[in-house]
């Protein structure tokens, strides 16, 4: 089966600063792939380059269509979802309004089913539907960010450090939710994370990014057992 996402030779940066050099990775149908890396390794830059927020060279093919050269909103229409870093919710809007914003591009008659699905996937959000997003806990806001991105029914969801700022138990719960959503909806996910221990529990495949290069790749369990990953990212 052809992959959902195939990235080759991805090079990107900011002005004259090149951050990513020759990054290659693939995400298969229904897969969760994680990119691990320390602060400043280029994880956020990778997602920005994929979703079209910064210019890039190379090749990024989503379900057979080249994305480079297309604007960010065109990439979203082709099925690329992005749950950005730092709880990208509209804090003054309610949970329900945030979810509806996520479904703006859906045909109007599909919105009720998409809302039902979002609350079905994240039942914790149901009693909070009329609460302003800014008054949710950190974990609830991360769930809302993911649920909102899923409203657009992406083929592939990009997730930027969903564990950021969360306590370990909340992170564990959120990652279990991500794995369940992936299994139930079949949505492929590309996740960038500093929290290797949590991310490797749910990843089918993973890559380690250092200074804008991929230096190591393998299945989630291969990486979790790799001595240099254990030393550098798992603190073992
Ligand atoms: P973190 O976990 O700290 O967010 P990261 O792996 O996501 O790290 P990036 O945010 O991709 O790292 O940053 C990679 C490099 O690009 C860093 O050296 C950073 O200083 C630089 N950088 C990031 N954003 C910009 C920008 N808007 N303009 C210039 N340089 C930037």
UniProtKB/TrEMBL annotation:
One GO MF annotation is: ATP binding
GO-annotated biological processes: L-amino acid transport
Kindly give the PROSITE patterns that the UniProt entry links to this protein.
ABC_TRANSPORTER_1 (PS00211), ABC_TRANSPORTER_2 (PS50893)
Q: Which domain of life is it from?
A: Bacteria
Which SUPFAM superfamilies did the record assign?
P-loop containing nucleoside triphosphate hydrolases (SSF52540)
Domain ABC transporter, first and last residues per copy: 5-236
Enumerate the Gene3D superfamilies for this protein.
Answer: P-loop containing nucleotide triphosphate hydrolases
Sorted alphabetically, the keyword list is: Amino-acid transport, ATP-binding, Nucleotide-binding, Transport
Q: Which family does it belong to?
A: Belongs to the ABC transporter superfamily.
Q: In its UniProt entry, what is this protein called?
A: Amino acid/amide ABC transporter ATP-binding protein 2, HAAT family
Please tell me the species this chain comes from: Thermomonospora echinospora
